[in-house]
Structure formats: structure tokens, C-alpha cells
Amino acid sequence: MATYTQSWRNHVWLAWFALQVPIVLLIDAMHFYPSWLYKPASSPLHFAEVFRQDYIATYNDPFMQWSAATAAGHDSWIGLFLYLEFAFSVPIVVYALYRLGVQRKGTSGADELLLLVYAFETALTTLTCIHDVSYWDPAVYSAELKQTFQLNFLGPWLLMPTLMFVDMVFRILARIKVADAAVAGKKGQ
After folding, report:
1. Domain named EXPERA: which ranges (predicted)?
2. Which of 21, 126, 165, 185 has the smallest C-beta neighbourhood within 10 Å, fewest atoms?
């Protein structure tokens, strides 16, 4: 199976996936861990809980305040996105880290298709969150704070998967062109 080894782009994606692991596991996943793992001051993940509580106190981020116990009404889709992140995205991130970081073999056509779907899902769910910020109560969230959420906190999570999507489209199209040329060459013989 042929691989695409554009090293500088693969290094960008490797860095992206490496950054994503601690953010997902130490911030997004906190809702799903048993409280003994992060609540007591002596627990191994207490530092992440302290960071999360400080972040919530500073920004009042409703996405971070979601929990399975309080998932009612309009915000119930946040839980769906979190479950999708753990069931779909995390395994892909781990696989991509292994493929690009440990094996250092580049990407195969199957890898590129998988990363294309991952990038689309990540960009679409992030875009949904960015759009939702626009509807937050202006009495609670100033226009400046909404812009901070949209551009600084969520913007990179839209930009990087969008760039990955475009990269994977071009990689897949290059493979299709080679395959089409090979088929045309066989027909011409």
C-alpha cells in the first residue's frame, strides 16, 4: 500500500494530535471520570479539576459546565458531541499518533480517508459550537467575551481540522488521478 510522506504536513498533524490528547483527556473528559479521580486534593487528576474550575469561574463557559446529570433542554447536544469525541475522535487521534509518530510511515489512502472524515466531523461540531456562542445571553456574555470564545478558544479547533480536510482531499485526489492514469494506460495498450 502506497504512503504519502509529505513530512512537513505530517509533522503538523502529528503536533495537532499530540496537543489534542491532553486537552481531551484532562479537560473534556472530566465529566465522565469518577469524582474520586479528580475531586479530592490528593487525587491524581486534581490539578486538572483546579484548572477547569478556575476556567469556569473566569469565563462561565457553558460547554465546560455541561454534565450528564444536568443535560436538559437546549444544551443536550453538547453531550452528544462529547460522546462522539470519545467514541470516534479519540480512537482516531490515538491511531494517527501511532501511525505518524511511532511508525513514521506517512499516510496510506485508507488513513487519508479516515482523517478526512475525522477532520470533517471535528470541524462541523466545532462550527456548531461557534454558531451557538452567537445565541448566548448578552446579559451574561458580552460581545467581546463571545468573540473570545469564537476566535481564541474555538477558532483553532475549526481552523486546523479544516486545513487537515483540505490536505486530505488533495492527497486523495492525487491518488485518484494516479489510479485513473494507470487505468487509462492499461486501456491504451
Report:
1. 9-165
2. 185
Q: Quick one: CA torsion of 80, 83, 89, 92, rounded to 10 degrees?
A: -140
* Residue 8 lies in domain: 3-188
Tally of domains in the chain: 1
For the residues of 62-105, what is the DSSP string, one character each?
HHHH--GGG--GGGHHHHHHHHHIIIIIHHHHHHHHIIIIII--
Q: What is the pLDDT along the chain (189 residues), one digit of tens a residue?
A: 466 666 789 999 999 999 999 998 888 888 788 999 999 999 999 999 999 999 989 999 988 887 655 555 456 788 889 889 989 999 999 999 999 999 888 899 999 999 999 999 999 999 999 999 999 999 999 999 999 999 999 999 999 999 999 999 999 999 999 988 888 877 766
Backbone dihedral region for residue 61 (phi beyond 0: left; psi -120 to 50: alpha; all else: beta): beta
| Chain centre to alpha carbon of residue 10 | 16
Cell (9 digits) for 105:
510511515
Residue type, 184: A
